[in-house]
Amino acid sequence: MVTLGRYFIFLGTLVRNRERLKVYLRLILDECVDIGVNSVFIVAIVASFIGAVTCVQTAYNLDNPFVPRNIIAFIVRDSTILEFAPTISSIVLAGKVGSSIAGQLGTMRVTEQIDALEVMGINSSSYLVLPKVIGAMLMFPLLTIMAAFLGILGGYLAGVIVGVISHEDFMTGLRFSYNPFGIKFALIKTEVFAFLIATISAYQGFNVSGGALEVGNASTNAVTASCISIIVADFVLTQLLLA
Amino acid sequence: MIEIKNIAKTFGDRQVLAGIDGSFQPGETSLVIGGSGTGKSVLLKCMIGLVTPDEGEVLYDGRNFLTADENTRKAIRREMGVLFQGSALFDSKNVFDNVRFPLDMLTQMSEDEKADRAHASLQRVGLENAEQRMPSEISGGMKKRVGIARAIVMNPKYLFCDEPNSGLDPLTSIKIDQLIKEITDEYKITTVVITHDMNSMMEIGEKIMFLFEGHKLWEGNSDTLAHSDVKELNEFIYANKLLRELERK
Ligand SMILES: Nc1ncnc2c1ncn2[C@@H]1O[C@H](COP(=O)(O)OP(=O)(O)OP(=O)(O)O)[C@@H](O)[C@H]1O
Ligand SMILES: [Mg+2]
After folding, report:
1. Containing structural domain, residue A172
2. A199-213: per-residue pLDDT in tens?
3. ipTM score of the complex?
4. Which of A27, A192, A209, B207 could form a disulfide with A131 if both were Cys (CB 3.0 to 4.6 A apart)?
5. Which domains does chain B have, with CATH numbers?
6. Do the Cβ atoms of A113 and B49 come within 8 Å?
7. What is the pLDDT of residues B162-204, one digit of tens each?
8. Over the range A163-179, which residues count as b (16 or more CB within 10 Å of their CB) and which as e?
9. Cβ(A195)–Cβ(A226) below 8 Å
10. Structural domains counted in chain A
11. Which residue out of B41, B80, B82, B192 would a mutagenesis test of the A interface target, given it has the greatest number of A Cβ atoms within 10 Å?
12. How many A from CA of A133 to the centre of ligand 2?
């Protein structure tokens, strides 16, 4: 409870007393590269394989001749867009981006780099953390869209290659009862996850005291706390937006 | 001139500083000495505003730093340079960008002007050839010098150094000490150096303040250091066996 309060106070310091806008543009760009571009590979791999597994698995579970095969593609599409692309990608990113944010800020804390900023009169939390939060919120949705696309593609390729579904059936299922709100929902979730991962990890890193050991612990805590918050937020948002 | 009055700080139920008074003059290198854990770093952090003392005042040429409004505090901050115990260089920036950083953030200078200032500062500490190196690629002594270059690039009126020669070999230590002293004389800076290095005390201690368990027990200079009648101070400086033997002769 105290931690939660401190977390909100920390969020407040991000927006108070900011530096010049020009300073942030550069930093945000750097973070976009760091967070976004460097995560493309891992997200792509995970998304394609999850799509593939979903397709093949669904096919085996649905080997009743009365169920049309195109349902498989329908299931792959919806589960990928609604759940796998935003949530699984975010959990992967919590591991990659969250630990690196916490590690980087934690190291800056214990090596007095944050003190050095403060002494110059720079609001260190907004200077260091705000660009990361904005960078994450800009890049996560793009990664999610990519993940959704690759997930469905992975499902298609696996399905056709393994021979559980034909090209025509997959295309029919893919177009079946399409609801565009699904994508909007996925993007809203992703933005919330991006914000949670970036701020929680930054909070963990920023509040390290001690040395290298504590920095390591902060990274671990950042990933754990981010993952839990993603799962909880996923549940809450699904209730709020889909129910 | 910096004056501190009756500084006290408690962490939890541990009193780290109690009633510390003192004043530091421009163009003079003042040392704060004392054993490990006696509160030297905390005193420095109270002075530069990283720790808020429970009691007391810190005056920068008469301006009360702790109670000043945000603009005055910012103005005072711009007049101080700090060399941290571990140098605290930004490890994502190269040496040159580290030194230029305060100019980027705090001034409206043109690019050329900033580059000139940063070059000059690095030249002053003898590192004009290492400008493009990353902090991870340079030695501890070089890091300290980059730290000094960054601390003086804004032409500070006040310079603070927390153990500028910890972790350095004796020769490099002396060079760093000399550098700090020269810069202090040259630009008439008010310099406060924390140290427990005997060499520094004898070499650059124009004024020395001895802390023991959060209290100021003695004040003097390098000439009077060895002849005090403060028991704790004598134990502190004669902890070194060699010095003890020298004293006996
Ligand atoms: N933020 C803090 N919270 C709690 N205790 C602290 C904090 N900072 C310092 N202390 C305590 O204050 C005491 C004095 O610490 P300080 O860092 O000033 O010592 P020092 O004189 O600089 O020692 P050294 O020569 O080893 O650097 C120590 O016992 C330390 O544990
Ligand atoms: Mg110290």
Report:
1. 2-242
2. 999 999 999 998 899
3. 0.89
4. A27
5. 2-79+158-248 (3.40.50.300), 86-155 (no CATH)
6. no
7. 999 888 888 888 888 999 999 999 999 999 999 988 777 778 8
8. ebbeeebbebbbeeeee
9. no
10. 1
11. B82
12. 34
